[in-house]
Design brief:
The complex is a heterodimer. By secondary structure, chain A is α/β, with parallel strands linked by helices. Chain A has 13 helices and 6 strands. Chain A has a single domain, classed as 3-Layer(aba) Sandwich (Rossmann fold), CATH 3.40.50. Chain A has helices at 2-24, 50-53, 61-66, 88-91, 101-107, 129-139, 158-161, 165-168, 171-180, 206-225, 263-273, 303-320, 345-360, and strands at residues 79-85, 111-112, 115-121, 146-151, 278-282, 323-326. Chain B has helices at residues 3-20, 25-40, 49-68, 71-75, 78-95, 113-132, 139-156, 158-171, 189-204, 213-221, 234-242, 249-274, 289-320, 338-344, 347-366, 374-393, 397-427, 431-457, 461-471. Classes of the chains: A alpha/beta, B mainly alpha. At the A-B interface, helix 1, helix 2 and helix 10 of A face helix 12 and helix 13 of B.
Chain lengths: 364, 475
């Protein structure tokens, strides 16, 4: 009887705690050892081989931001806070934190509006404007003085918007954002991963909870080593020779259909920022001179589509009064690493050189 | 073992303990253990070896019984019944190769049945021949022990393991350039070897109790303790096996608590600590002395919770089946000196080495005409024992250094304790002084053990040295 009693009590308690968890939905991700026991991370957590990168990909935005150094304390009076958002090129694939664009801008010790510029890397791998917007909606709480949004054509196709796992697993946050802004989102998009009631219990969320806990543990190794991704000694260089392929996603030449691009996400970003200036930067791409480079600039883009995109961005910026900087050809082809958008440390220095005046002249 | 495998095995044990109780327990344990050793054997690059290795385990176990059992026992007909069960089980598992889906017991499709039948027939003939022997040469026991040690070396010495793999690949027409020292992972072999050597030595000494074949094989491959011990003694094991199993409420509660505690230690604490514990990858990446100590301590606790967690799981699971396995850990990190640490860390392994190596070697050294000075004898026996325990984990320089570290540590403690015990007793006259002595002993011992784990955690001597330098701020 004693054993049965214990089993019944244990099971009852287990069920009650699970139900309470599902009903109350506590924001566990906000509890973080980062910025308290361990230094905050220089970039948002992302990693496919946690054991070697001391980092992991998770979808809890609260936990992701709580682990970032931007969550480290109150903004100082003399701080001019700049946040960078964008894809893996901003996050810094294959780059150490100090070699990324944010790292290089910080080491330049620049000032703007009479204050010291501190740049926060809020880039995140996967290319999607909606993913950037989701991160921006969280980042805005950290009182930025300036937002630099680096993007590229690959982030615009509508089909790419929810394909990012971070977006697909944050349906609620995105729908909240859509309701409070003009963002167009189909709530029934099958790409969304939806939680049922049972999926909201501790059992249903065991993977997400385990990820949050693992992220805290990896804080030890982040603090001990300063490593947050794998740096392979060798990698495959970005493709420079191409087949005769003129397609860009579902787009066929000669017209890049504006209606199939998420221009609306950029508009929403502008609204979301309110009075905070946003600078949209068309990020550098690899301009190949290899086989069939008269047809394609690189793996991502046929020339016709990319040229039309650049013209479209200039037109949109003029019409909407956006601050837009086109740096598409700012970095030579030999300063790209394993992708047509990933830069070497020297490539990042060159890019930082182009972006510095944008920051320092913002008050002029 | 994965948590799923553990839960399935525990569920089977619980079912038997609650529902079947005493009915056919010994056969259940034998059959379940046979299935489990096939099921847990990981897949190997050598074709069919995830089937042949458990088969070999059973043949070795049966052979060991034949050479260690008394003549009357060997001739008992019931043992042929056990042999039939074992052969039938092996054949049954082999026949799963004809199922239309992937094998449910072995990792890969079992090999051709005709080969198995040949192996079983040859083994049967061998056993029959041994049964008929009137004059049994006791040298066979020594040959058996040497054979086990030889297999152990073939598995644990990387160069030998490579050549064994190469040889097997040549014989079976498999790719030779893919031969590797890691090809032969014989699940549980170390523990099987310990148990068999214990029975063969005890037989030589005339201490082995009379056991039938079913009891013997069950003891050797008892599934809760198959992969990670504890190393039980056969006389204690069969006492429980022969005793009626009464799984009452209290026993169920104790077993359940122990099992759950084991799961928590292994899959929550140890696995979490494993994320941050010292390893080959992070050892050279750590930037500061402080973090290096933290990672080393994380490793020290990870290995303790991992191993003692598995032990708790094995003890809890076996209690459901009416077998009370011996304890393997008793708060080892809270011991005030290295000798006590080793009396409480992996207790059954230490006891095994004490019984079958340390004591015999000490007796042998004492029997010399020109007796060695006591300190020399202590140094020799302790260092040799710890070196052997190191080599049991793997025949590498780092395991040798780990063994040497502890052997020298035990010797130093022995001498220090001898020199200071009178003065220490005279000084520690108040409870606070006794406490101070005890706590400082615990701190020193724990840190000595933790530093020793560097050799255990890392695979290279040079990396281990770099870690030592970093820990003391010299790099």
């Amino acid at each position: 009887m004693k054993t049965l009693n214990i089993i019944v009590k244990g099971l009852s308690l287990f069920i009650i705690i699970n139900l309470l968890f599902a009903i109350l939905q506590p924001e566990i991700g906000r509890l973080s050892a980062y910025n308290i026991i361990f230094p905050g991370r220089e970039r948002l957590p992302f990693g496919e081989n946690s054991a070697k990168a001391y980092n992991l990909s998770l979808f809890d935005l609260d936990a992701m931001f709580a682990s970032h150094r931007i969550n480290g304390g109150q903004k100082q009076a003399d701080e001019f806070r700049v946040i960078l958002i964008g894809d893996s090129s901003v996050w810094g694939t294959l780059l150490k934190p100090e070699e990324t664009l944010a790292g290089q801008l910080n080491s330049a010790n620049i000032s703007a509006c009479g204050k010291n510029v501190t740049v926060y890397n809020l880039g995140y791998p996967t290319i999607s404007l909606t993913k950037d917007l989701l991160l921006l909606s969280h980042a805005i709480k950290y009182q930025p003085d300036m937002i630099i949004w680096l993007t590229t054509l690959e982030a615009l196709p509508l089909e790419k918007q929810i394909a990012s796992p971070l977006v697909a697993n944050n349906q609620e946050s995105l729908l909240r954002l859509a309701n409070s802004s003009g963002l167009k989102v189909d709530p029934n998009d099958p790409a969304f991963s939806r939680d049922s009631f049972w999926g909201s219990t501790i059992i249903g969320k065991q993977r997400a909870l385990a990820d949050v806990i693992r992220l805290q543990f990896y804080g030890v190794l982040w603090a001990a080593t300063g490593i947050d991704q794998i740096y392979p000694s060798d990698f495959t260089k970005a493709q420079t020779n191409f087949e005769v392929d003129r397609k860009f996603h579902q787009f066929e030449p000669p017209v890049l259909d504006e209606n199939s691009l998420a221009i609306n996400a950029l508009e929403t970003g502008m609204d979301l920022a309110g009075d905070t200036p946003i600078i949209i930067v068309n990020e550098p791409i690899l301009i190949s001179d290899g086989k069939n480079s008269d047809i394609r600039y690189n793996f991502f883009y046929p020339r016709w589509a990319y040229d039309q995109y650049r013209a479209l961005m200039v037109e949109q910026s003029k019409n909407n009064n956006w601050d837009y900087v086109d740096l598409w050809d700012a970095v030579p082809a030999n300063e790209f690493t394993n992708s047509a958008i990933h830069l070497t440390p020297r490539g990042e220095t060159q890019l930082a050189g182009k972006i510095t005046p944008v920051i320092t002249t913002v008050c002029k | 073992m994965t948590i799923i495998q553990i839960l399935i095995v525990a569920a089977a044990a619980l079912f038997w303990g609650l529902v079947m109780r005493e009915r056919g327990r010994s056969y259940f344990l034998l059959i379940a253990s046979v299935i489990v050793i096939f099921w847990l054997q990981p897949s190997l690059p050598l074709r069919g070896f995830d089937f042949w290795i458990p088969t070999a385990t059973l043949i070795v176990a049966v052979f060991s019984w034949y050479i260690s059992a008394s003549e009357e026992s060997r001739r008992e007909k019931k043992n042929w019944g056990t042999i039939s069960i074992l052969a039938g089980m092996i054949l049954f598992i082999n026949l799963t190769r004809f199922l239309p889906f992937d094998s449910i017991i072995t990792r890969s499709r079992p090999p051709q049945t005709v080969f198995l039948l040949m192996v079983l027939a040859l083994s049967g003939l061998l056993f029959f021949f041994i049964t008929r022997l009137k004059h049994f040469n006791p040298a066979l026991l020594s040959i058996g022990i040497i054979g086990l040690i030889a297999v152990f070396l073939a598995l644990k010495v990387p160069a030998l393991a490579y050549w064994v793999s190469y040889g097997i690949r040549s014989l079976t027409n498999q790719s030779l350039h893919e031969a590797a020292s890691t090809d032969l992972r014989w699940l549980g072999f170390s523990y099987i070897a310990f148990r068999i050597i214990h029975t063969l030595r005890d037989h030589q000494m005339g201490r082995l109790p009379v056991v039938d074949l079913a009891e013997y094989v069950t003891y050797i491959i008892f599934f809760p303790a198959f992969t990670a011990g504890p190393i039980d003694r056969i006389e204690r094991f069969i006492k429980d096996l022969r005793k009626p199993s009464t799984l009452g409420n209290d026993e169920l509660l104790i077993a359940g608590q122990r099992f759950m505690m084991g799961l928590f230690k292994k899959f929550v604490v140890a696995d979490a600590l494993a994320l941050i514990a010292l390893n080959d990858t992070n050892a050279l990446q750590i930037r500061s002395t402080g973090w290096m100590w933290i990672l080393l301590y994380a490793y020290a606790f990870q290995i303790y919770f991992d191993f003692s967690g598995y032990t708790d799981i094995a003890i809890g699971m076996s209690r459901l089946l009416g077998i009370q396995l011996p304890e393997n850990f008793s708060a080892p990190y809270q011991k005030p000196n290295l000798t006590q640490f080793w009396n409480n860390w992996h207790i059954t392994l230490t006891q095994w080495f004490r019984a079958y190596f340390f004591n015999p070697v000490t007796r042998w050294l004492r029997s010399w005409k020109k007796t060695l000075p006591a300190p020399v004898m202590i140094a020799l026996t302790q260092i040799a024992t710890m070196l052997l325990i190191g080599f049991w984990h793997g025949v590498t320089w780092n395991f040798a250094l780990w063994g040497l570290w502890h052997g020298v540590g035990l010797f130093i403690h022995n001498r220090w304790s001898d020199m200071t015990k009178v003065r220490a007793a005279a000084w520690a006259t108040t409870p606070s002084r006794k406490n101070l002595l005890n706590v400082s002993g615990i701190i020193i011992t724990f840190n000595f053990v933790a530093l020793g784990w560097i050799f255990f955690a890392l695979s290279s001597t040079s990396t281990s040295m770099q870690v030592f330098l970093k820990l003391f701020g010299l790099r």
